[in-house]
UniProtKB/TrEMBL annotation:
Organism: Pandoraea faecigallinarum
Family: Belongs to the peptidase S58 family.
Superkingdom field: Bacteria
Name recorded for this polypeptide: Aminopeptidase
An MF annotation (GO) of this entry: aminopeptidase activity
Entries under PANTHER family matching the protein: BLR5678 PROTEIN, D-AMINOPEPTIDASE
Length: 371
């Protein structure tokens, strides 16, 4: 029998996925103009938080700043975007208008299911502070808040996340950020293990230029028996080691939010196609998009912006031709798979409400590569 090749190592000891090169951080913030911030709440039965992905125009990042430009107003200078709902068992806010208009006009926030309304209020108050006419002389804001259910570890009924936590996560946004059991990922579970925040990036050459593609996931999906790591189906061994028959037999009730960023000039239709390709990377890890799983993807570009107040014609960007999108599709699939693995490999074991525990992959499957 031919032996499988040794794995190249990525961040956190995870195997490296694919042949495309990663950016210097192997994270979504390798895309110019993208910053990420967390607030983590870890106190007994409260295991949750907020993560904010702040997309700014790529030109604003050319200064080398490590945090978003305070003068940039996402309501006035909107970012092109496209969404794909792979399985719609979710309670996210903003998807309908993003699908219709093809732009995001607020930082993209992640949190637990019961905290969506508080984070929406935080987004509204921040936008109104910058634009006092919102909801009066100006149109209302379309918030962008996505969620997963962290109720196994976190007491969601405590409603611990507040508007102030969103504001702090936004203030914390920077190029370097933690992964694993942090921010919105603090209480999340994947494949019966500790899930959470994961990110990765790939660099592609297409249409005569070089672009970055980055992915950030809020990973909270999968049954233990399904887990596949870099092509190795280790799920049956994981299932046996966890020895949780009641959970093994339970139907899929997890979710995943997948955010894709690029600086390639793409329109909303093309970005929706890019968002759809996250499903390829998701499937490689063993997911079958179960009935009770909310699998949602959003792709955006920092390569150009759409002015909110345009009264005349707007010069279109020189878009990447459809026939040259395949490298971006490949990068999206590979970075999605890599980001999910980073979430698993970076996570620590967490004790939450009612003595519920999710163990880290590193504690349960340290020998995954030899199985």
């Amino acid at each position: 029998m031919t032996s499988l090749p040794d794995f190249r190592e990525a961040s956190y000891g995870a195997p490296y996925i694919g042949l495309l090169p990663a950016g210097p951080r192997d994270a979504i913030t390798d895309v110019p103009g993208v910053f990420v911030g967390h607030v983590t709440l870890a106190d007994g039965p409260v295991q949750t938080g907020v993560t904010v992905v702040c997309p700014t125009p790529a030109t604003a990042a050319d200064t080398g700043a490590v945090s978003p430009d305070a003068q940039w107003d996402p309501f006035r200078t909107r970012i092109p975007a496209g969404a794909a709902v792979i399985n719609g068992f979710g309670k996210s806010v903003g998807l309908m208008q993003i699908d219709e208009l093809g732009v995001v006009e607020a930082p993209i926030a992640l949190t637990n299911t019961f905290s969506v309304s508080h984070v929406v209020l935080g987004q509204l108050r921040a936008a109104i502070a910058a634009n006092p006419e919102i909801g009066r002389g100006s149109p209302s804001l379309n918030p962008a808040v996505f969620e997963c259910n962290d109720g196994y570890l976190n007491d969601m009924q405590a409603f611990s996340v507040t508007e102030a936590h969103y504001a702090q996560a936004l203030a914390n946004a920077a190029s370097d950020f933690a992964q694993g059991a942090v921010g919105a990922g603090r209480g999340m579970s994947s494949f019966g293990l500790k899930g959470g925040i994961g990110s990765a990036s790939r660099v592609v050459e297409t249409a005569g230029a070089t672009y970055a593609v980055g992915v950030l996931v809020l990973s909270n999906f999968g049954r233990a028996s399904q887990l596949t790591i870099a092509g190795r189906h280790v799920g049956p061994v994981l299932d046996a080691r966890l020895a949780q028959p009641e959970q093994s037999a339970a139907p899929e009730r997890g979710s995943i939010i997948m955010l894709v960023a690029t600086d390639a000039p793409l329109d909303a239709r093309q970005l929706r196609r890019v968002a759809t390709r996250t499903a390829a990377g998701l499937a490689r890890t063993g997911s079958v998009y179960g009935h009770g799983s909310g699998d949602v993807a959003l792709a955006f570009t920092t390569g150009y912006t759409m002015p909110h107040d345009a009264m005349g014609r707007v010069a279109p960007a020189a878009l990447v031709p459809d026939a040259q999108l395949d490298p971006i599709f490949q990068a999206t699939a590979d970075a999605t798979e890599q980001a999910i693995l980073h979430a698993l490999f970076a996570a620590e074991s967490v004790l939450g409400r009612d003595a519920h525990v999710r163990r880290a992959l590193a504690d349960v499957l340290p020998d995954w590569a030899t199985l």
